Amino acid sequence: MRNANTIWLTKLNQEGIIEYMKKIKLRTWNLNYWKKLIGDEAKNEAEIIEWKQNGAKILSSWVQNDSGNSEKVYSFLLLQEVSLKLYGEIIGNNLDNAKGYGDKNELKVVSDEFEINYNIIPKKLTDWGLIIDSRGSRGEKLYDNNILGVVCYKYIIEHQAIIIFNIHAQRDYDTKTYSSTWYKIINEIKEIILKNENALIILAGDFNMSDKHFSNEIESFKDVFIKIKQLKMTDCTEKIPIDDRDTMPYHSYPYQNDYIFINDKYLNNQWDIEILKDQISKNYSDHYPIDFWIKL
């Protein structure tokens, strides 16, 4: 909350009205929880408690407002491979006020502090999917497809529209490939992107695309990236040196599965991106988190 000593950075909008500077923070992270808790890497009870405590440290540090007195910060946490129950345990909230909406695969939790939108992807587990935890804003769902592994919400922050896609691309049942899934994703989301050219649009998550891991799909993946860029979207991870872009720590060779794209309209804004390669993150999941912020 703003106090008497707070000095907000301001700017003039197109109508000459003073506005506060706004900062959007976003972290995307595949928690790999199904494997850690009940899969082939399942741990004993003491290790599970420690695993959840480490997750709490990582996630709570992200949602804290660290901007001091200079700007308003709105935080978004995009998670893949996570359950709502586990997330509640990690953040220390049992989320008993979770309310279903839409179909049985969706839940929303709202408090004064946050809004959590949870979409189940019924592929590996019955309770496993995507979470968007937004701090300081409320979202309207624009699109979801649990089979493809995509959900999209629109947020209005002080008259600024923010459209966020949380993605965990699933292997196509028919072709057994990820690239065919991505052709379907692009075909279904392109209208939202093209119709909202003034909004800040963010595509983020576990894309399951790599130029090294899925060798039989390399050429298809290159074509998918071209098609995303034809929607006037740019891969922000390209700002990171190519030798440091790997997001999968437990492989004998480095490769990247996780990405953040924004629409070209906002590329000239001040922004930055980082792949968080610390030991706690590495011990926690088989993916590194990606952190992104942009000033509006």
How would you portray this structure in words?
The two termini are about 20 Å apart. The strands form 3 sheets. The protein has an 8-stranded mixed sheet. The chain contains 6 helices and 16 strands. It has helices spanning about 35, 45-65, 85-90, 180-195, 220-230, 280-285; strands at about 10, 20, 20-30, 70-80, 100, 105-110, 115-120, 130-135, 140-145, 150-155, 160-170, 200-205, 235, 260-265, 270-275, 290-295. It is globular and about 45 Å long. Helix 2 (about 45-65) packs across helix 3 and helix 4 (about 180-195) packs parallel to helix 5.
Strand order of the largest sheet: 5-6-7-8-4-3-16-15
Strand fraction: 25-35%
For the sheet with most strands, the description reads:
8 strands, mixed
Write down how many β-strands occur, each being a DSSP E stretch of 2 or more residues.
16
CATH superfamily: Endonuclease/exonuclease/phosphatase
Mean model confidence by pLDDT:
82
Give the terminus-to-terminus CA distance: 20 Å
Helix content: 10-25%
Count of individual helical segments: 6
- Report the oligomer: single chain
> So what's the overall shape?
globular
How does the helix and strand content classify structurally? alpha+beta
What string, H for helix and E for strand, traces the elements in order?
A: EEEHHEHEEEEEEEHEHEEEHE
Which regions are unreliable across 5 or more consecutive residues at pLDDT < 50? 1-10
> What's the CATH class, please?
Alpha Beta
User: What is the C-alpha radius of gyration, as a whole number of Å?
Assistant: 19 Å
Please tell me the CATH architecture by its name. 4-Layer Sandwich
